[in-house]
Amino acid sequence: MLKRGTWTNDTVARWLSRHAQATPHKPAIAWAGGTLSYAEAHERAMRLARAFVALGVSKGDVVAMQLANLPEFIIAYLATSLIGAVTCPMHMPYGATEMAPLLHHAGARLVVCGPPVGDRVPADIFRGLQQKVPGIAHIVTVGPPAAGTLSFDQLIDTGPFGDIRSTGIAADPAILCFTSGTSAAPKAVVHNSYTMLANNRLCAPLYDLRADDVVLSGAPFTHAFGICIINFALSVGATQLLLPAFRPDLFVQTILNGRPTTLFTAPAHVAACLKAGLLDDVEFPSLRIATISGSSCPPQLAHALQQRMPNGKVMQMWGMTELFMGLNTRLEDAERVRCETIGRPTPEMEIRIVDDRDAPVAEDISGELQIRGPSVFSGYYNNREANADAFTDGWFRTGDLASRDAEGNVRITGRLKDLINRGGIKVNPFDVEVLIDSHPDVMQCAIVPMPDEVMGEKACAFIVPRPGASVTLDEVCAWLRHHGIAKMKWPERVELISEMPMTPTRKIIKGLLRPAREART
């Protein structure tokens, strides 16, 4: 039973209108090229919303967006919200092959895409996709006009404009996001404003988030994490500072020059900046909070960022597309807790950690993390098979392995699907990966199972070596022996690669790491 007030009638459109009236001149969006006030953002979003209506888009229709973290993404998102349509973000690396089944599954009516970048011309990609997804009636392009598309700026400036006759309510679908790496059997997560905005409203006091904050998202807006950060800033009328796309030098310069007070970033972002030497002798005095999320964070990364924040604190947050912000450390926590755990459930969320029979495990014992609460989605859109495995007794099965200490703080210890079944013994590679990552010649490591006729499965370590370095299986095993890791957990093959396959939120896609037939040492 939800506590009274957990869900409200708030929508993105209502938050926008409220701030446009109360603080019209306050910057809503800031980037290297300028700012848009709340009044200006509201006006541009309203004009675009009316243009969408004139094009036949109405409440409940799906508007797909493939844009970098640009002002136009936020304006398109706000416009879609103003008419009660459904935002469906497409990850930036996706091409026609990846997007065709997703757009078809979503039933996209209109697409907003970005300008050409090098040889990639999004307008051409989406015009080709119209043949495979006939439901796409219009393509709107940001940047130079393109044949067969409509200009984003011209729609705002000159229309045509229609009247918005029906706006969305909190119970209506608001966003449709696909979980990373899904295409053949899409797992589409639909959130209404109840589940989408509850976290933001309830967690704002936890962050002491306020209107004078400047919020920077390192996560792409085409992911639920990025959407969550847009909404988080909007919930209190803060300013959203934009980083169009992650690049280590731009990331550091945006923090130094844009002076955000609140940062949301991923472990891979911090690691890339550290390894490039960009954080040497650098401090970020403007940051009062830097929250690390998106994947498991090695403690040394969190501590390294904390050392560069003389006036702020590092926090960690764990979340999923299916529920947004599920666990979070607190500002009052000791540095050890904030840098080495993901904290405790966010307000009104509940968790349990269970064994393979769904029985609770003891403190400090690893088990599956399950969660329930006001932000958890109701089920995958039009995917009965996925839904059958997603819930048990009202709890969402996250697939993450975790443990909880005596203070109630949680640590992620791996993924269920990453376990290696070595002769009937389930081996969790998580702690081994962390240790190999700390080897002086290693930039990144991921361990995956490889078939074995005798043991069933053995471990193969894919390694990205540091520039100019190399590493062998013998060296890896010697490193693990030195650190006291049991031999049964050592990898039995090493594959050297130039880079890891990554999701848009910088998680390693282990499913694309396939060991070669011949061992390499």
Class of the largest domain in CATH? Alpha Beta
Number of helices: 15
- Strand residue percentage: 25-35%
- The CATH architecture classification of the largest domain is 3-Layer(aba) Sandwich
Number of domains: 3
**How far do the termini sit from each other?**
56 Å
Radius of gyration from CA coordinates: 23 Å
| Integer average pLDDT | 92
Strand order of the largest sheet: 2-1-11-10-12-13-14-15-16
Helix content: 25-40%
Task: Outline the biggest β-sheet.
Answer: 9 strands, mixed
Secondary structure category: alpha/beta
Please state the overall shape, judged from the principal axes of the Cα atoms.
globular
Give unreliable regions as ranges. Answer: none
The total beta strand count reads: 26
Provide the CATH topology of the largest domain.
Rossmann fold
At the fourth level of CATH, the homologous superfamily of the largest domain is ANL, N-terminal domain
Describe what this molecule looks like in 3D.
The protein has three domains: 12-193, ANL, N-terminal domain (Rossmann fold); 246-415, 3-Layer(aba) Sandwich (Rossmann fold), CATH 3.40.50.12780; 419-512, GMP Synthetase, Chain A, domain 3 (2-Layer Sandwich). It has 15 helices and 26 strands. It has a nine-stranded mixed sheet. Strand 3 (62-66), helix 3 and strand 4 (86-89) form a beta-alpha-beta unit. The longest helix has 17 residues, at 38-54. The relative contact order is 0.09.
